[in-house]
Amino acid sequence: MALLEVENLRTYFYTRGGVVRAVDNVSFTLEQGETMGIVGESGSGKSVTCYSLLGLIPRPPGKIVSGSALFGGVDLLNCPKEQLRRIQGKRISMIFQDPMTSLNPYMRVSDQLVEPLLVHDKMSRSQALTRAIASLEEVGIQDAANRINLYPHQFSGGMRQRVMIAMALISRPEILIADEPTTALDVTVQAQILELIRQRQKDLGTAVIFITHDLGVVASFCNRVNVMYAGRIVESAPTDEIFARPMHPYNASLQQSIPALHKKGQALFTIPGLPPDLTIEFRGCPFASRCAHAGEICKEQDPALKQIVPGHKTSCIRFQRGEIADVRIKNFVSAV
Amino acid sequence: MSIFLELENLKTHFPIYRGTIFRRQIGSVKAVDGVNLQVRKGEILGLVGESGCGKSTLARTIVQLIPTTQGAVILEGRNLSEISRAAVRAERVNFQMIFQDPYASLNPRMTVYDTLAEAIQTRQQIDKKLLLEKVGRLMRTVGLPANQMRRYPHEFSGGQRQRIAIARALAPEPKLIIADEPVSALDVSIQSQILNLIARLCREMQLTMIFISHDISVVKYISDRIAVMYLGRLVELGPATEVVEKPLHPYTKALVSAIPIPDPQVERRRQRIILQGDPPSPMSPPVGCAFHPRCPYAIAACKAQRPELEQKESNRFAACIRVGEI
Question: Is A81's pLDDT higher than 90?
Answer without folding.
Answer: no
